[in-house]
Amino acid sequence: MWGRLAKWVMWLLVWSMRLTVWPYSRILSFFRKNTPLPAIDNNLLLHSATSLADKIRNREIGCEDVVQAYIARIKAVNPQLNCVVQDRFEQALQEARMVDLQLAAGTMTEERMKEERPLLGVPITVKESIAIKGMSHNSGRVKPSQRVATEDASFVRRLKEAGCIPLLVSNTPEVCMCWETFNNVTGRTNNPYDTRRTPGGSSGGEAALLGAGASVMGLASDIGGSGRLPALYCGVYGHKPTPGYIGIDGHIPVSEDESWGNFFSIAPMCRYAEDLPLFLQAISDPAKRQNLRLKQPVDLKTIKIFYIEEEPSILSDRVHPEIKTSMRQAVAHFANKFNIIAQEVKIKELEEVYQVAGVVMLRMKSCNSVYQKTEDNPSEWNSVLLTYIKYIFGLTNHTHPPLIYGPIKKYADSISDKEFSEMLELKRTLMQKFEEMLGDDGVFLYPTFNDLANYHQQFYYKLLNISYFTLFNLIELPACSCPTGLAKDGRPVGFQVAANKHQDRLVFAFAKELESAFGGWAPPPSILPPEKETDPKHTMDKVTTQG
């Protein structure tokens, strides 16, 4: 593994990139205008998915009214955010009317509906890398153009069976290979809290819609923080589940490597913590989901809390002070309310995660990329050098981030078997340490990332910090990025909560308590009525309902 000299060389390379990119991005941000989003004018948008499902089942509200409210909100904010790749608004309204007719007919009891169709009538948005029959499924690529999914992914089918109504597919970077969200098909997606900034990636379209109050549930994916980083940047929840429960079909990119399903996961995203267990229950394989015990209550007084405020690596940057503050406030809250004394731990092996996680992921076989010669054979590549030369001279439609995959994939494949075995041994050591530490009653608090939402294009020089979120892909643990409010400059703040395998329920219970204590999703101030800008937890009674 890397010696100190190699690490310092990498650090210097990234700092040279910082000196180039930072002035450029700052100049662009100076000339770009931050465009505040329009205010929410319908209180249906401020209910959780759980609440909406209950009220639709009880016929307190109409499903068509809910779907129409979200369609109107999406149309209101998309000009500023640019999240939508393709919508299915007309079909969604037709499906909503059918739900209302079904409920009026009274053919199913409320209890049976709650058990068999727990999300009946709830609208959902979906990342464009995920297959919804009849919808764009190109993962931000120019070619193949106009690729349409011929069938639903298995987990999309389960959501529909649970009663969800898909509204659209949302923007993603090309082949999901960037931690910002832009491509040459749909363009650049903006952050709802500051449109000069990125919503993160690769699930940036979903995160931006959720943060703007234009979605209540977002179906995304996570292979290296792709669901959790955007959740941090847009102030919502993004969960990477325990591997093996959901399925990996119907997603681009995909890999034929046997370890892909351990690293990659479909990722539920939402605005309200109480929706996390319901969401994961709905998308999980019915034959396996009982092992998650998502309906079993968690006694928070019995949990153990471990935390690390900062990664022990010379490569990573300092953690933003308001992220550290939010973690300390959470630790203090659980000490005061539940008499739980959190333990700050040191895990030396974390300083190697940047390299190990990257190489393990990059060595996976037959993953979709911009280099593949044909759609059906991701293993057969065009020349990396020639493709880069074409990019330099403007002779290709590719964006730059997915091109980086080529040379670093070549580097990862060139690593000796002996060195790779050492990396796998470090992975096993980390997995064992976390398993022993967490047991079946522990949670681990860790920054989702070292910083808050950056201006567009600044992520290039933040790449040495990705081990904050790739850690949990590497060691195959469930982890959720949880919002804890807004920083002084208005950007969302939060951190990750992780637990042992199959203990997603502990993460969700902890997230719900954090939400109760610190407010969870704090809407961008511009979308709330003026008198409630500083108190986003209590807005529903003050917002006028339309329709």
Automatic annotation (TrEMBL):
Name this polypeptide is given: Amidase domain-containing protein
Lineage: Eukaryota, Metazoa, Ecdysozoa, Arthropoda, Hexapoda
Domain Amidase per the UniProt entry, residue ranges: 65-507
Family annotation (Pfam families): Amidase
Organism in which the protein naturally occurs: Graphocephala atropunctata
UniProt-annotated catalytic positions: 127, 202, 226
Domain of life the protein comes from: Eukaryota
Feature: compositional bias, Basic and acidic residues: 530-541
Region spans: Disordered: 523-547
One cellular component (GO) term of this entry: endomembrane system
